[in-house]
Amino acid sequence: MSREWNPRAGAGPDAMNGQRASPPAQQDAAAPARGLLIVNADDWGRDRVTTDRTLDCTRSGAVSSVSAMVFMEDSERAAALAREMGIEVGLHLNLTTSFSAPGCPRRLVEHQQELARYLGRHRLSQVVFHPGLVRAFEYVVAAELEEFRRLYGAAPDRVDGHHHMHLCANVLLARLLPSGTLVRRNFSFQPGEKSLGNVLYRRFVDRMLVRRHRLVDFFFSLPPLEPSSQLERIFSLARQSLVEVETHPVNPDEYRFLTEGEVFRRAEGVRLGPPSAVP
Q1: Do 66 and 38 meet the contact criterion of CB atoms below 8 Å apart?
Q2: Which candidate among 13, 67, 191, 267 keeps its CA 20 to 30 Å from the CA of 19?
Q3: Domains of the chain (ranges, CATH numbers)
Q4: C-alpha pair distances (Å), 74 with each of 5, 147, 164, 249
């Protein structure tokens, strides 16, 4: 029998039983600013293979945090592992990949499938606010936030999105993400990598985000691993700035890079840490 999600149901326990790290101590005002490199693995809980490969990378110390998918086939086990091992977890909001957990509420599945069809229809769908889908977006986002609280014992301090759809117009303009959370910004590009219109739109979205959320200074994807120019830029920026790198350890090249110690070989002078270290 499928279970129905109730958006008015109470949240879980207030504490995460050690799941959250304590906030960093305030630095002396005269101390020089320090950079930080966050290596975050997406799709935690999507399936058993993804969770297990990511777990290997967290054990090696190369991955500092994960973003969890809820209502997926391995979400329950992944949450138990994260709480047992003290892995820092944020919500990986999923509006595009079908929920795969057994017994997922039918109404929730239907709403999410409706959103996925719309967002996948055209690459520009995410930048257009759809008034007819307001309630579906509200329902699915609220359901995922509530399910995260159930699984992890507290609301997420950090939110990003599967296929980056946490940045779509219906989520941003309706302010569906909890205020004050650390939210993933747009990808960072060098001058000339994207068209002027693309750059201006991304800048507009990031300015909207910073009004209600905390952001890092730069955000990149771990690939491409070759040529190494982007990796060199990432590590260079992280010496003085707050830099997040997303990775998907289920991909063999990224898994090898993370488990064979390449991060540590390149990280001289770089502070590696979890998102909880972001002011």
Answers
A1: no
A2: 267
A3: 36-277 (3.20.20.370)
A4: 18, 13, 21, 16
d(CA 23, CA 28): 15
Enumerate the H helices of 92-180 as residue ranges. Answer: 106-121, 134-152, 169-173
- One-letter amino acid at 181 equals T
Chain-centroid distance of CA 117 in Å reads 22
Using CB atoms within 10 Å of the CB of residue 252, give its burial: 0 to 12 exposed, 13 to 18 middle, 19+ buried.
Answer: exposed
Q: Are 66 and 52 a contacting pair, CB within 8 Å?
A: no
Q: How far apart are CA 72 and CA 162, in angstroms?
A: 13
Residues paired with 90 in a beta bridge: 67
74 and 47 in contact (C-beta within 8 Å)? Answer: yes
Are the C-beta atoms of 20 and 276 separated by less than 8 Å?
yes
Q: Residue 24: is its pLDDT beyond 80?
A: no
pLDDT in tens, 34-69: 799 999 999 999 999 999 999 999 999 999 999 999
pLDDT band with cut points at 50, 70 and 90 for residue 11: very low
Q: What is the pLDDT of residues 212-263, one digit of tens each?
A: 999 999 999 999 999 899 999 999 999 999 999 999 999 999 999 999 999 9
DSSP letters of 66-113?
EEE-SSSTTHHHHHHHHHHHT--EEEEE-SSS---STT--HHHHHHHH
The gap between the terminal CA atoms of the chain, to the nearest Å, is 44
